[in-house]
């Protein structure tokens, strides 16, 4: 009967260790059932699950490995595995897989302790933990620091919504972001990312900037507050606010466009997505003029927003065409997916306001970014602690692949 043995090797990392050990195994025609290797702070941990054919004796194999690891200064441990134990392990491979991504300026042992406790309480097993962010400097964190850890877990969840809720409450308690995703094929095949513009791609609300230039800032703010309280729908509030801009010198638009502050991480995110072949879009309840400015600046592929009417160098106080509200954003997202020939599961949508919820809800990955509480509560994912480039961590992209 074939023997199954787990070989664990640990020690100071150096080149050629894995090659040396597997060469010994190859010389005995050993079958490798599983293998895993990790290096943490120049310390190697290598695990190999092997099947020794019934025609071979395990003793000389283990002796050769023991001598070789001793020469290299490594520790080795051999653990026999029963056929029943192996079959149980194989059966577990068919269980659901899930990804938890922690994002913060700094991740502590306390954060990991509480997250992994919830994982255990739901009967899930941790398969792997990977650091996605760069190495942490000893001098501490600052406002631009980033920390992210990805936890791959396995097991069946009878109530995914309940698990999401537990994770959401914990994230709020710890003041970090925790994203939950099913580890399926769509996570690795996203192809389109659609952004809201105001307070998402840029750290400003353009209509407020225009209102200030027109001297109607307080009136516009009052209407905005009514809309936020639900006293007036978005489309009507938008018409009323735009009407107050009548007579504004159109030359102001250019000066405002050039001083709009990009959100932290926007440039890195979009440039990385472009390198990876993603398509990007702006779906905004703001104005096309500013969306086109960002399109040129960042290399965005599509822009859909509201066209501000201008006559004789002055804003008329009207917009042409259908207003881009929440419903329209969702329609546009579906249209773009159809145009690109992809499933909505392959689409990412990012926004901060209530009018973004329709598109966030239909996207395969909907992300509430630095959003209002009602939006965070209704979106599947939320990022509040990091910049836009934190989205790369949700895609499993680490800093070692982008910081070059």
Q: Can you walk me through this structure?
A:
This protein is an alpha/beta fold and 404 residues long. It folds into three domains: 3-91, Alpha-Beta Plaits, CATH 3.30.70; 94-183, Alpha-Beta Plaits, CATH 3.30.70.260; 192-402, HAD superfamily/HAD-like (Rossmann fold), CATH 3.40.50. Helices cover 40% and strands 27% of the residues. The chain has 16 helices and 15 strands. Helix 4 runs antiparallel to helix 5 and helix 6 (206-214) packs antiparallel against helix 7. The model has no long low-confidence stretch (mean pLDDT 92).
Task: Give a summary of the structure in a few sentences.
The protein is α/β, with parallel strands linked by helices. Helix content is 40%, strand content 27%. Helix 13 (357-362) links the parallel strand 13 and strand 14.
| Main beta sheet | 7 strands, mixed
| Helix/strand structural class | alpha/beta
- Give the overall form: elongated
Which percent band covers the strand fraction?
25-35%
- How many domains make up the coordinates? 3
State the strand order across the main sheet: 12-11-10-9-13-14-15
CATH topology of the largest domain: Rossmann fold
Q: Going by CATH, what is the homologous superfamily of the largest domain? A: HAD superfamily/HAD-like
Mean pLDDT: 92
Termini, distance in Å?
51 Å
Computed over alpha carbons, the radius of gyration is 27 Å
Number of strands: 15
CATH architecture call of the largest domain: 3-Layer(aba) Sandwich
**What is the number of helices?**
16
Task: Flag low-confidence runs.
Answer: none
The level-1 CATH class of the largest domain: Alpha Beta
Helical content class? 25-40%
